[in-house]
């Protein structure tokens, strides 16, 4: 448990002083008070949206044909649920060594994304999944990172970050982007008439290639985690310790009441259960929104789904940047991006492989082009290891331009045909 002082060991768990609550077990009044206050003003503001959660659940069962209302309620309801996952993950991470804590927090923040991917996979919404994979990466790289740079730049002329975070992250992003692009370029480079292949044969080769690329990306992610956690953890621990010392609100964070280990687990259990249910409601209504109300599949997958699944991580990272913990903010933005590209995306392909579903990594050329250009843009901003509000503004502006392009991009015929069949055969 976490009833230790000064980060001493209690039982089997060693709790860092930063995560010490001074209590044991679960205390309902303290639990609700701490979770309501959350970790920052923005997170606390998000808690105002909790009434949308029961409203979304009720609407899912009572409003048969009101798809826009149901989707809108579920979309908004997902934000406080994801925020609770992020807050409980942050509280749990405080109790761990720096690098393990960051990895745990990033992984827990990706739970919403994994749940949505798996639910979409069950419904064979491959196009939405592929767009959401790239959309999630773009949201973290351009929107979240841009807002972090902008927030940090409002309080100080320049924010500086360590090369250990930016250089390794940039290299991994470029490698992951190229890895994800290989099946797309492979499929689009084959002239069926010239090579005497049918569309089914090309698709089969692309699917097989995607399986192998997914395995390679997973292996790369494992090596990356080993690099951070075992062989080079001292570098990262030193960087994060330095960030903690320059935390503008460090004295307030230290004085804040904290969740016990038991309360962290309870909060995560409740939040993940709610996220799963809200995600089921959300995914159920996607075909109706796309087919009946003119929202294109590219906009749904590339923009709308990633924004709600990454809300908690974005709030955490922006708060850290505002408090002059730019390395923590950067590790959340880049870490979450790497996890989507090298863990979550390969995972959904491998799960589909096991289920016998033809989910591959063949993206739309527009989507994959935006990804590669986005990685190059962010890499250029990270190169000098410092940022200001102008760079943040430019990142957000780039993201908005991509969002507008996705809005006007039409739904591909194959994806539309599948959505129509899902709509006509849908139901609770």
Describe the structure in your own words.
By secondary structure, the protein is an all-alpha fold. The chain has one domain. Helices cover 77% and strands 2% of the residues. The strands form two sheets. Strands 1-2 form a two-stranded antiparallel sheet. It has a two-stranded antiparallel sheet with strand order 3-4. A hairpin with a 2-residue loop joins β1 and β2. α6 packs parallel to α16 and α15 runs antiparallel to α16. It is globular, with a radius of gyration of 22 Å. The N terminus is likely disordered.
Number of strands: 4
The count of domains is 1
Question: Which geometry do the CA atoms define?
Answer: globular
Strand order of the largest sheet: 1-2
Number of helices: 19
**Radius of gyration from the alpha-carbon trace, in angstroms:** 22 Å
Instruction: Bin the helical content.
Output: over 70%
SSE ordering: EEHHHHHHHEHHHHHHHHHHEHH
Low-confidence spans: pLDDT under 50, at least 5 residues? 1-13
By secondary-structure content and strand pairing, the structural class works out as mainly alpha
Give me a quick take on this structure:
The chain is mainly alpha-helical and 428 residues long. The protein has helices at 28-37, 41-46, 52-62, 67-94, 98-109, 111-122, 126-155, 163-189, 192-195, 199-231, 233-245, 250-255, 261-293, 297-309, 311-322, 326-355, 365-382, 389-408, 413-424, and strands at residues 9-10, 13-14, 159-160, 386-387. Strand 1 (9-10) and strand 2 form a beta hairpin.
């Amino acid at each position: 448990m976490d009833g230790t002082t000064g980060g001493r060991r209690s039982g089997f768990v060693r709790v860092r002083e930063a995560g010490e609550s001074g209590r044991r077990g679960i205390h309902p009044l303290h639990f609700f008070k701490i979770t309501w206050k959350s970790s920052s003003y923005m997170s606390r503001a998000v808690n105002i949206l909790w009434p949308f959660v029961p409203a979304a659940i009720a609407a899912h069962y009572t409003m048969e044909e009101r798809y826009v209302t149901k989707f809108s309620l579920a979309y908004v309801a997902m934000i406080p649920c994801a925020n609770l996952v992020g807050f409980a993950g942050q509280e749990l991470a405080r109790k761990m060594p720096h690098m393990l804590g960051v990895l745990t927090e990033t992984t827990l923040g990706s739970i919403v994304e994994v749940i949505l991917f798996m639910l979409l996979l069950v419904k064979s919404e491959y196009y939405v999944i592929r767009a959401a994979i790239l959309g999630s990466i773009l949201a973290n790289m351009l929107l979240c990172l841009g807002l972090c740079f902008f927030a940090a730049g409002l309080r100080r002329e320049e924010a500086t970050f360590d090369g250990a975070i930016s250089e390794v992250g940039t290299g991994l992003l470029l490698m992951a982007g190229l890895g994800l692009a290989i099946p797309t370029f492979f499929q689009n480079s084959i002239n069926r008439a010239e090579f005497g292949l049918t569309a089914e044969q090309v698709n089969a080769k692309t699917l097989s290639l995607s399986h192998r690329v997914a395995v390679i990306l997973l292996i790369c992610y494992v090596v990356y985690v080993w690099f951070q956690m075992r062989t080079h953890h001292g570098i990262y621990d030193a960087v994060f310790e330095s960030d903690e010392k320059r935390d503008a609100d460090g004295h307030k964070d230290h004085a804040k009441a904290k969740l016990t280990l038991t309360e962290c687990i309870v909060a995560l259990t409740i939040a993940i259960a709610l996220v799963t249910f809200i995600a089921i409601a959300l995914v159920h209504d996607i075909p109706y929104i796309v087919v009946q109300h003119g929202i294109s599949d590219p906009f749904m997958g590339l923009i709308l789904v990633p924004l709600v699944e990454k809300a908690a991580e974005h709030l955490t990272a922006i708060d850290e940047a505002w408090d002059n913990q730019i390395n923590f903010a950067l590790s959340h933005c880049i870490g979450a991006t790497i996890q989507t590209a090298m863990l979550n995306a390969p995972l959904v392909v491998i799960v589909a492989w096991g289920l016998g579903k033809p989910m591959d990594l063949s993206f739309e050329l527009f989507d994959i082009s935006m990804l590669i250009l986005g990685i190059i843009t962010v890499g250029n901003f990270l190169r000098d290891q410092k940022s200001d509000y102008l760079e943040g503004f430019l990142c957000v502006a780039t993201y908005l331009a991509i969002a507008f392009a996705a809005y006007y991009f039409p739904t591909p015929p194959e994806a539309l045909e599948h959505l129509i069949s899902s709509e006509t055969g849908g139901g609770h």
